[in-house]
Amino acid sequence: MLAMLPAGQARAAQRWTSPASTDASGSCIELAPCRIDHAITGAAAGDEVIVTPGEYPLSGPLSASVAIDLHGVAAMTPGGNAR
Asked: Residue 37's closest CA among 27, 24, 46?
């Protein structure tokens, strides 16, 4: 099924983060997540920033300049069950 959006209305992007990532210039896709600060500051209005489990080292507070959807995802065990 193909969803049609009115002209000029873009679909919100998903921006994935990882505590192990050092990427501060990529597009933050699921297979190549970026640093949390880059994902948040590079997000457009309505984008979804997905935070994977772990401890994120921060050098200061994070702030989005536009409204974003920020949420985490559950960690998976080796058997495929959420923790």
From this structure: 24
Q: Pick from 22, 15, 7, 5: which is nearest to 56 by CA?
A: 22
User: pTM for the whole thing?
Assistant: 0.78
d(CA 69, CA 35): 16
14-49 pLDDT tens trace: 999 999 999 999 999 999 999 999 999 999 999 999
- The number of residues in the chain equals 83
CB atoms within 10 A of CB 77: 9
Half-sphere exposure for 62 (CA within 13 Å, toward CB): 16
What's the DSSP call for residue 76? B
Q: What is the pLDDT of residue 75?
A: 75
All structural domains of the chain with their residue ranges: 12-75
